Amino acid sequence: MKIQKVLLVDDDPNIRKLARMSLERVGKWEVEVAASGSEAIELLERVKPDVVVLDVMMPGIDGRTTLTKLKEASATLPVILMTAKVQNEEIAEYLSLGALGVIMKPFDPMRLPKEIVDLLNGHEKD
Amino acid sequence: VSNPQQPLLSLAADIGTALTCCDSVDDVIQHCAEALVRNLEAAFARIWVYDDSTRMLILRASAGLYTHVDGAHSRIALGALKIGQIAQDRQPHMTNEVWNDPRVSDKDWARETGMVAFAGHPLLVNDQLIGVMAMFSTKPLSETTTRALASVADGVALGIHRKQIEGRLREREQLFMQFANNMQDVLWLSRPHAQQTLWISPAVEQVMGVKPEDVYENPYAFMEVIIPEDRPRMAQFMEMTETLRADSPKKTTDVEYRIRKDGELRWLWTRAFPSFDGEGKIYQICGFTHDITEKKEAERRVSEFYSTVSHELRTPLTSIRAALGLIEGGVTHPDSTETVELISIARREADRLIRLINDILDMRKMEAGKLPLKILPLAPHVVVSNTVSAMRTFAQEHDVELVTWIQEERSFIGDYDRVVQVLTNLISNAIKFSPAGSLVNVNVQASFSERIRFAVSDEGPGIPPEQYNKGNSGATERRHRL
């Protein structure tokens, strides 16, 4: 699958800026950002991203709820989670809710696009 | 002519009755002494009980001519007088010629009272000295009577010994019951496979909310208060306990489980100790149950603390790592303003990391009571304007406007750094959880009894009321750094 457009969702402005730079310049993708789960859901229809990169721990509606709502809106939409939390049970829960995979924070900005591609390819092979 | 055996048979019967008549040692031996006087026409009969700790014979029963237990012969040292000597030698002493007996010290008394015969027996059980039984008579004692007295002494010795053991057991039981009934933990004893509850301490009602009588009636009554998801664990624990053998390396089993008591969830810990028969099989199981809710709660808080701290530390590290990675990867031109901006992000986030670590260290110091406070008069507007100006950039990044309203100008006393820290945490939290384009208000006003009230309000999602008092617990993502 060819990625053209990524929707990046994170409440931290620094991380939004840095991850965007990584996805745009290293991944050569078009990037739209959202600062909250509700904003992401709003943008979904207009942006029509190929993949969503979603921070798990956000104020307002949290990553878990956002994930569920995104999958409700588009069951085939690949959603990749980013988290600074390391509990394995949580990761298993996100996967069971339909997340394609989990990327741990801190991430390597030079490798982030490749990690996303690998997750998508791994998914397609299945 | 009466049967010469008659008094001895009657004595045997009386002694038998005496030995089973009463609870206390004193009552039993007093009845024995009276039986001797009544059936053998003894002038008087006395029984001393040996006290091992003082090595003294204590007069505890007296019948016939003398009925007092105090006075000259009330306490006799081992080996002293004829009574002490009988005890020491563990040999009976008998005579039908009291006036000639070298052991009888007061011969005048014997003559005056017409005492002819004396019989004294050590009271022994398996070589253990219990006491001495002795009698004087104004008539000679026949050989048959003498022999009968030896067996009476054996019976009395056994009777006293048994009563002493019973008394000690009763004391032990009282001691045990005092522990068991007043303990906050549940103690219990049951047959294997919970066929029958043999005993359970009354604390079961307080700890588990189950009445003891219900557990006696149905040994599985406690199962009903265990929450359904933990019942299999309890069943497994019971099964594990049953599989223990006398030669198992581990002879106890433990289980942690949750119960619902008065609508509240409680954590309990139960440990079982089986008792094994001669073949190494379990014949009964004892154990105790302890409420560990507070310990579990403390564990949860610690684990939550680590999880929150690790998340809080990873967030600035993520920005630092990403900014440096982009510079190193040549994503931006080295001389560009973009690179300067990335360096600036990394530096700011490094500062944030330092603050976080200082906060954690301060928390530790505070918990240990080692955080010294520098208390000085402070002006509210200085505290607020310094804090707010340091937060401007952060607010701009989040597209949030900071508004201050100082209604109280009088100074107050406090530690400048701590007040600024609390205010910074409140404002930073408010900014973080504010929707873009909204306001965060910082307000200072007079409060009751000379106090000053600092208030930070935002238009964010707020905290659900049920989590108000959790403070730093991290149970909510909001306000986890007060």
List the helices and strands and how they pair.
The complex is a heterodimer of chains A (126) and B (482).
Chain A: E1 5-9, H1 13-26, E2 30-34, H2 37-47, E3 51-55, H3 63-73, E4 79-83, H4 88-96, E5 101-104, H5 112-125
Parallel strand pairs in A: 1-2, 1-3, 3-4, 4-5
Chain B: H1 6-21, H2 25-40, E1 44-51, E2 56-64, E3 75-77, H3 81-89, E4 93-95, H4 107-113, E5 117-125, E6 128-137, H5 143-182, E7 186-190, E8 197-200, H6 203-208, H7 212-217, H8 231-243, E9 253-261, E10 264-276, E11 282-291, H9 293-328, H10 337-367, E12 375-378, H11 380-397, E13 401-406, E14 412-415, H12 416-432, E15 439-446, E16 452-457
Parallel strand pairs in B: 13-15
Antiparallel strand pairs in B: 1-2, 1-6, 2-3, 4-5, 5-6, 7-8, 7-11, 9-10, 10-11, 12-14, 15-16
Helix pairs in contact in B: 1-2, 1-5, 2-5, 9-10, 11-12
How is this structure best described in words?
The complex is a heterodimer of chains A (126) and B (482). By secondary structure, chain A is of the alpha/beta class. Helix content of chain A is 47%, strand content 19%. Chain A is built from five helices and five strands; from the N terminus they run E-H-E-H-E-H-E-H-E-H. In chain A, helix 2 (37-47) packs parallel to helix 3 (63-73). The longest helix of chain A is centred in the first third of the chain and has 14 residues, at 13-26. In chain A, 39% of the residues are buried. The model of chain A has no long low-confidence stretch (mean pLDDT 89). By secondary structure, chain B is of the alpha+beta class. Chain B contains twelve helices and 16 strands. In chain B, a hairpin with a 2-residue loop joins strand 9 (253-261) and strand 10. The longest helix of chain B has 40 residues, at 143-182. Classes of the chains: A alpha/beta (126), B alpha+beta (482). At the A-B interface, helix 1 of A face helix 9 and helix 10 of B.
